[in-house]
Amino acid sequence: MAERPLARGVAARQRFARLMPLGDRNQPVGWTPGLVLGPQDPKIEPSLAPFSCSRSQGAVPASISMSTRGEMCYPFDSTDTWQASEGLLLP
Q: What's the rounded Cα separation, in Å, for the pair 5 and 17?
């Protein structure tokens, strides 16, 4: 699957800070800055925590995945997941 762009805009600016809506401009799913939930975190609404992440257990090299908790990538038809490898760790 090809990567899809994360839909975002700028709602407000204050010096170097930005408030950005994520998803459809008319009905954003979440906002930045936002929280990223881990597997043991309590469930919070997606407007406050628009992303979740997990790490593989027991595999070397470990892999990390980060998922959207709503339809934030154009054309707003499904959630998306990005994966990365931590690489090899030396003792």
A: 22
- Nearest CA to 29 out of 13, 45, 53 is that of 45
Separation CA 35–CA 41 (nearest Å): 11
CA distance 51 to 66: 7
Q: Is the pLDDT of residue 84 over 70?
A: yes
Give tens-digit pLDDT for 45-82: 988 999 999 998 777 888 999 999 988 888 888 888 99
CB of 20 closer than 8 Å to CB of 32: yes
